[in-house]
């Protein structure tokens, strides 16, 4: 398995500086990662730094808590697309889930999807699986599966629990085959990354990407 081709090489810390983005993009090109995932402020710079390569530029929307207004998320998406983002990792409104307001979530995704599809961008929906029940994860699969998103993503990395094999397996069982899964949050070793891929993950979001690739090489 070429683990590098699964990886979204990520830096989303609030103290991110240009040097971090330069290093991220250089490593992504060197190792052949699928994408770099950067804060919205750095999309334009990342696009410049990855020009001429196969590395996609992803950014986050409504990050990390997801409870910004739908209109605010739409504005973020528009700006990210203008700056050159290829992929949009959108945090859903977790508060709406916990308030059992599934209609709000349906309205949110139905507002966002036409814009993303018109511009032919990739959308990854972040559900924060570590703080959801299995039933809540399954209902998310129903909503976002019906909406036809490109990926469902396990976590932001900011909740108390990130990706798990169980969550990926659950999502895989309840999503249409056409919808891919991105596992992220607390993925620091090749062993764990490989377990998530085996469970059904198509992408791995992590900041320990280089270490994971080096571990993969020694693992044979």
Question: What do these coordinates show?
Answer:
It contains 9 helices and 8 strands. It has an 8-stranded parallel barrel, surrounded by 6 helices. The model has no long low-confidence stretch (mean pLDDT 97).
Strand adjacency order, main sheet = 1-2-3-4-5-6-7-8
SSE order: EHEHEHEHHEHEHEHEH
Question: Which overall shape is indicated by the principal axes computed on the Cα atoms?
Answer: globular
Low-confidence stretches: none
Straight-line distance between termini: 10 Å
Helical content stands at 40-55%
Structure characteristics:
single chain; 220 residues; alpha/beta; 8 strands
Would you spell out the secondary-structure blueprint of this structure?
Layout: E1 7-10, H1 18-31, E2 35-38, H2 43-49, E3 56-61, H3 70-83, E4 87-91, H4 94-98, H5 102-118, E5 122-126, H6 134-147, E6 151-153, H7 165-174, E7 180-184, H8 190-199, E8 203-206, H9 209-219
Parallel strand pairs: 1-2, 1-8, 2-3, 3-4, 4-5, 5-6, 6-7, 7-8
Helix pairs in contact: 3-5, 6-7
């Amino acid at each position: 398995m070429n683990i590098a081709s699964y990886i979204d090489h990520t830096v989303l810390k609030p103290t991110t500086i240009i040097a971090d983005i330069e290093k991220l993009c250089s490593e992504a090109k060197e190792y052949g990662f699928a994408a770099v995932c950067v804060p919205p402020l750095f999309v334009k710079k990342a696009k410049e730094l990855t020009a001429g390569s196969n590395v996609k530029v992803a950014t986050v929307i409504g990050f990390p808590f997801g409870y910004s207004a739908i209109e605010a998320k739409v504005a973020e998406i528009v700006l990210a697309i203008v700056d050159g983002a290829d992929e949009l990792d959108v945090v859903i409104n977790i508060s709406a889930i916990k308030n059992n307001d599934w209609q709000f979530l349906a309205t949110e995704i139905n507002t966002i999807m036409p814009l993303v599809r018109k511009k032919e961008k990739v959308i990854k929906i972040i559900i924060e699986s570590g703080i959801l029940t299995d039933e809540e994860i399954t209902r998310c699969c129903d909503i976002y599966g019906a909406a036809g998103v490109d990926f469902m993503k396990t976590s932001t990395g900011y909740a108390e629990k990130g990706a798990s094999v169980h969550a990926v397996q659950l999502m895989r069982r309840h999503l249409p085959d056409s919808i891919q899964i991105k596992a992220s949050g607390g993925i620091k070793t090749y062993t764990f990354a490989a377990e998530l891929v085996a469970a059904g993950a198509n992408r791995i979001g992590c900041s320990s990407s280089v270490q994971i690739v080096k571990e993969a090489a020694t693992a044979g």
